[in-house]
Amino acid sequence: MVLMGAIIGAHGIKGEVKVKSFAGAPKAIASYGPLVDAKGRSFALSVTGQASPGKNGVNQDVLIARIDGVGDRNAAEALKGVELFVARERLPKIADEEEFYLADLIGLEVVDQHGMAHGHVIAVENYGAGDVLSLEGGPKGAFDVAFTKALVPVVDVAGGKLTLDLPDGFFDRPEGEPEDVVVN
Questions:
Q1: Quick one: CA dihedral 170, 176, 178, 179, positive or negative?
Q2: Which fold has domain 2-90?
Q3: To bridge 166 with a disulfide, which of 45, 57, 97, 170 should be the other Cys (CB 3.0-4.6 Å)?
Q4: Average pLDDT value over all residues in the chain
Q5: Tens digit of pLDDT for each residue in 98-121?
Q6: Is pLDDT at 63 greater than 70 in this prediction?
Q7: Which residues contact 157 (CB under 8 A, 6 or more apart)?
Q8: What is the pLDDT of residues 131-173, one digit of tens each?
Q9: How far is CA 173 from CA 37, 116, 118, 169, 178, in A?
């Protein structure tokens, strides 16, 4: 399942919701047919508008939508925080080998520029400053790396791996940082 959006609140009194879309073209979220949440509930969306731009013109990816069966503000408010997913196979095929869905990175083997294995990708997160790959299973343990062209120059989805170009000292502990603390 691929995360396509999240309901971030109610809009008005007639049951409309604000949806943050993660689709490349935000309004395309409604074109995938019914979306599902983590519990398997189905949500048929119809986009009715775009949220007003917030400070500095943000909110371009926040839409106003109707959901079948949601007819009042209370029902809409109850959906706040629901994440909306689509089955990976329902997404359009990508013809360009330089493009991929972030969900396709999960499970890829990870090696560095010297061929040293670093495990595999377990998640792709975004906390607001860009995508971050979470890796585990390598000799250095679990770690995160910014998903930038400089640090991840090669992504071979078909081959099942990606290559990191880690700077010297990437795994060095900063001076003054305490050793790992074990609590009994």
A1: positive
A2: Elongation Factor Tu (Ef-tu); domain 3 (2.40.30)
A3: 170
A4: 84
A5: 778 788 899 999 999 989 999 999
A6: yes
A7: 100, 104, 105, 108
A8: 899 999 988 889 999 999 999 999 988 889 999 998 888 887 7
A9: 40, 20, 18, 8, 9
Superfamily covering domain 102-164: PRC-barrel domain (2.30.30.240)
Going by C-alpha positions, the residue among 28, 60, 69 that lies closest to residue 47 is 28
Altogether, the residues listed in the chain come to a count of: 184
Whether the model clears a pTM of 0.70, i.e. scores above it, the answer is no
Backbone angles phi and psi of 75, in degrees to 5: -65, -40
CA distances from 112 to 116, 117, 133, 152, 172 (A): 5, 7, 14, 9, 16
